[in-house]
Structures are given as structure tokens and as C-alpha cells.
Amino acid sequence: MADTCGQVPLGSGLTVLSHPLMYIKVLVQVGHEPLPPTLGRNLFGRQVYQLPGLFAYAKHIIKIDGKSGLFNGLAPNLVARTIGTVVQRKVLQVMSSSQKKEEGSLPHVINETTKEMIARSCATIVTHPFHVITLRCMVQFIGREAKYSGVFDSIITVYREEGILGFFAGLIPHLVGDVLSLWICNLLAHLINTYAIDDSMSHTDEIKNCSQAVTGFFASMLTYPFLLVSNLMAVNNCGLAGGLPPYAAVYPTWLDCWSHLSREGNMSRGNSLFFRKLPAGKTYAIEQKRFF
Predict the structure, then answer these.
(1) Which of 25, 38, 50, 133 has the fewest CB atoms within 10 Å, i.e. is most exposed?
(2) Phi and psi angles of residue 85, each rounded to the nearest 5 degrees, phi first
(3) What CA–CA distance (Å, rounded) separates 93 from 261?
């Protein structure tokens, strides 16, 4: 219990600090590009047209809504993170077993990953309604709506317009992405720690922790399309400008959204907020202008 109580304020602090980054990423994911491209240089020194990066986008939001505008949707985001932390810890405690497997062995990794998968999935299902509300509070920036103004009012709005299913829009790709990311990360880290790192090496524990972080980053990159599709489906056809044409088509299912993004070559949209090269022939909704 003490461990959980300690994690909640720490997680809340990290959520507050990272919220502006999440906010800008979500707006980019739905295709909101209010600033014109600028001529810059890529990593190889070549001149290319680039879309505005993180800081330019943040300045644009501050210019319109002030610094507090960077924290739109923070309340439901905090609720989601807090509940998720508590649920995940409780589920792990319930599943804790006295049966011990050799630490570091493949059966041990599979056993622990399975427990973590169940706990994380439970947390995701419980908190997804607040995640949906968070995303919709953010996407309101595009059309300057005020439809989702608070946690409780937003709950009423979603239920009145879409019923219970509205709270779980985009849940399936969210779960699939989480599960795949977890298994890729843990199994890949196990392979590296077992076959690439010698226990006789100095600073072995630090190296293993580093490998876990690297594999986690790699796994998140591989499964990013699931996060993108999940977020798009959470706001799709919800009555906000950001979830309707010309930003997005009305997708019957998340598979239709996936197929559409794949055909466009937009499966990594929003994955990076730096060095954002302008896709050839891409038309953006706000500008209604074609840049090459």
C-alpha cells in the first residue's frame, strides 16, 4: 500500500510535466497543421521543407490560449493515470504467488510478463473512458469548441450521445498495442541480457537496465501505429471538428482507420515532433493549400 501511495504522486507529477507534449502530439496525430512549413535542413544538411516542431507548435497554442492552454485535458488525464496506477498495483498484488521460478530464466520472464500484461490490461480497460475524454478535450482546440468542459460533464455528454460504448472508442487497438509492446520489450530484453551480456562484466546491472530501456523504446516505435489508430478512433465522429472531415473520414471500425492510414503512408504521423519533413503532395485541413 505504501508503495502505491508513493507511486501516485510521482506519477501525477510526471503526468503534469509531460501533458503539453502529449497535447501537441495528439493534435499532430489528428492532422492539425495550423502553421505553414518552413525551409530547414535535415540531419544530413540538405534543405527540405519541414512542418513546425514541438516548440513552434507550443508557441502557437500559447499565443491563442495562453500558457494554461497547454494543459487542456489535464484533469481527466490525471484521473486516468491515478486510477491506472492503483488498479495495476492491486491486480499484481492479487496475482502474486509464492511459487518461485529461477530469476532471469525464460519461464520466469514469461510468467512475470503474463502477470504484468493482465494487470496493465485491466488498468487500460478501467481508465480508457477518461483517456477518451482527455483526447476529446484536447481536440476541441481545433474547432474552438467547448463541448467537453470537465470530467463529470464530459461523462454525461459521452453517455448521452454515444452510450456506454462511447467510453471505449479505440479500446481494442489500445489494448493490442500495449500487449505487443510489453511482450516485445520483455522478451527482447531477456534475449539481450542472456546472450549478449556477460555476468562477469563490470556494471552488469546498469547495462541490463539500459537494455530494458532501449528495448522499451524499440517496442514503442514498432507498436506506435496502434496508439495512433486508437487515438484517432477515440475522437472519430464524436461531433468535434477534429474528428470529422476534412481532418478524418468517418471510420466504421479501427481496421478501416488502419487501412486508410496505411494507404496514405501516415502510420507514423505524430511519432516525432522534431525534423518533421513535409510529405510530398500532402494537403492539410486548415491551410487548404498544397505544399511540395
Answers:
(1) 38
(2) -65, -45
(3) 40
